[in-house]
Design a protein that fits this description.
alpha/beta; TIM Barrel; 7-stranded parallel beta sheet; 4-stranded antiparallel beta sheet; 11 helices; 30% helix; 21% strand; globular
């Protein structure tokens, strides 16, 4: 529903903002519009924020946002207010939307190629048949049954890629984690349900290696990735993963073997690098120690262990990416950007992957409400590109081999 008498309003952190041109693009193919449950939308009347009222008596009203496809980074949050009794909203990456010239626009910029991750290539009519065929081929592989569940119930793209035999395929292997990240999607640490069910078994080395080998031998631009949304921290399973990697590399040098990790268990990361790991993607909310610790809430490791893992991987010739969990109004604060620049310059990170943080902004900004000036997400990306010419700025893992 459009309110022609009001301008679009958005949020940067806790601040109301009227979007600027460089912060908005037409809604891209593959994006979806969603309601922000029980939240009341706010517009701009030219002088001040104004709460939108239902157009007629008896109608209810709630804010709308967009969920962006891979390759697009959110620049602003939707403008809404929460009734005092409103519960936390589901863990999604809400981006502000508005109308202009008869089209829907969204607060986003394109940060990577959209080709391999376009929703058109996923959830196809033939997916159930592909799943059935692979389950028949590997009837005893419990990982494959987990991936079938994730592919169909969660529409997980890396799970589906295993069955499509292409690109990056996820292989979950670990039940436990060594952190209590606020935005974890498989174990809730906020007053909201987790959107995914975590793996509940430890697969064998044979299950890991047979699935990984099959994918790398058959997939186009093949990548296998340990560390998925439906599991804990994969480096805690370093012994089995190292054995599986060694077995895979004994039979093929094709494709890329990647781990998505918090990198807190340095001994495990070292073991995996020695076994033949090609790429490490380290998830971080902040490169400032205090903020990092407050978000990730690690068990039995410190921020210094993360840096030690990155240093070892770089020295071992493994490609290192930062999976930067991005929240407008926090990630683009001047002090956060400065810390990121200094970190990448010091440790020689190969890539920064901008990942829209799926979380209720109000919940997390209760914890990280204080901060300095904000330069905006487009300004942050421009600064990273200018100051880090040897570092790729993107959104997802690219093949190394």
């Amino acid at each position: 529903m459009e309110f022609p008498g009001l301008e679009m309003l958005a949020r940067s952190g806790l601040q109301w903002v009227v979007p600027e041109g460089g912060e908005m693009i037409p809604l891209p193919n593959g994006a979806s519009l969603v309601a922000v449950p029980n939240q009341l939308p706010v517009g701009w009347d030219g002088e001040r924020p104004r709460l939108l009222n239902p157009p007629s008596e008896g109608m209810s009203i709630q804010a709308v946002a967009a969920l962006l496809p891979q390759g697009f980074t959110r620049t602003l949050l939707p403008a809404y207010v929460s009734p005092s009794s409103s519960p936390a909203i589901p863990l999604l990456g809400y981006a502000a939307v508005g109308f202009r010239a008869g089209r829907i626009w969204v607060a986003a910029v394109q940060s990577d190629l959209h080709r391999n991750w376009h929703p058109h290539y996923f959830n196809t009519e033939g997916l159930p048949r592909r799943i059935s065929m692979m389950l028949q081929r590997f009837p005893s592989n419990r990982i494959l049954r987990q991936l079938a569940h994730c592919a169909l119930q969660y529409s997980c793209y890396t799970a589906q890629n295993i069955f499509y035999r292409r690109w990056e395929g996820g292989i979950p292997t670990m039940t436990a984690c060594n952190a209590d990240c606020l935005g974890c999607i498989s174990e809730s640490h906020l007053p909201v349900d987790s959107p995914q069910q975590r793996l509940d078994f430890r697969p064998s080395i044979g299950e890991i290696s047979e699935l990984g080998l099959a994918h790398l031998l058959q997939a186009r631009q093949g990548i296998i990735s340990f560390g998925q949304g439906c599991e804990g921290e994969p480096s805690l399973n370093a012994g089995d993963l190292a054995a599986a990697i060694a077995h895979i590399r004994l039979h093929t040098d094709q494709g890329t073997i990647n781990i998505n990790t918090n990198a807190g268990y340095t001994q495990g990361i070292q073991q995996l690098c020695r076994a033949g790991l090609d790429a490490v993607r380290v998830t971080v909310f902040s490169l400032r120690k205090d903020n990092y610790m407050s978000y990730h809430r690690p068990h039995n490791y410190q921020f210094s262990d993360v840096t030690a893992s990155i240093e070892f991987a770089r020295q071992a010739g493994v490609k290192v990416s930062l999976n930067l969990l991005t929240l407008p109004g926090f990630t683009d604060r001047e002090e956060e950007v400065e810390a990121l620049l200094l970190f990448v310059q010091k440790y020689g990170v190969d890539m920064i992957q901008l990942r829209n943080l799926n979380i209720d902004p109000d919940q997390i900004l209760k914890i990280f409400s204080k901060g300095g000036g904000v330069i905006g997400i487009p300004g942050m990306i421009g600064m990273l590109q200018a100051e880090l010419p040897g570092t790729v700025i993107g959104s997802y893992t690219h093949p190394v081999r």
